Amino acid sequence: MIIERLKSKIHRVHVTQANINYVGSITIDGALMDAANLIEGEKVQVVNVTNGERLETYIIRGKENSGVICLNGAAAHKARLGDIVIIMSYALMDFEEAKTFTPAIIFPDTETNKLL
Questions:
Q1: Catalytic residue among 58, 66, 89, 90
Q2: Residue of 38, 29, 13 lying closest to 109 (CA atoms)
Q3: Position 77 in a domain
Q4: Which element (helix H / strand E) includes 99?
Q5: Residue 89 appears among annotated catalytic residues
Q6: Within its chain, how far is the Cα of 40 from the centroid?
Q7: How far apart are CA 83 and CA 113, in angstroms?
Q8: Contact 28/59 with Cβ under 8 angstroms?
Q9: Catalytic one among 8, 22, 25, 89?
Q10: I want to staple 13 with a disulfide (CB 3.0 to 4.6 A). Which of 5, 17, 32, 113 is the partner?
Q11: Is residue 33 part of a domain?
Q12: DSSP SS3 for 68
């Protein structure tokens, strides 16, 4: 049996930018991506803690240690600057593998969006 399991999570970062005129996606600080085992183009779920919105999109790599969390295109309508979001990705894996798999979960500084 194959199941979908949490692979990566960036817990409680704040939105620093929203660019309605961009094609679409979310730009994430490259250092956060590396720490959370995320890659450019990967599908993520973004959960807005501030307003309850949820969306799926793909990642664009942002400048390392910039703290950038930017919702682009239509996703920009789902958050305002300063909103707190959680970013998660999932992976398909064998049920037995899933029992022992450890997801990469990071808790950046909520003021700067940088690694502690």
A1: 58
A2: 13
A3: yes
A4: helix 95-100
A5: no
A6: 11
A7: 12
A8: yes
A9: 25
A10: 113
A11: yes
A12: coil
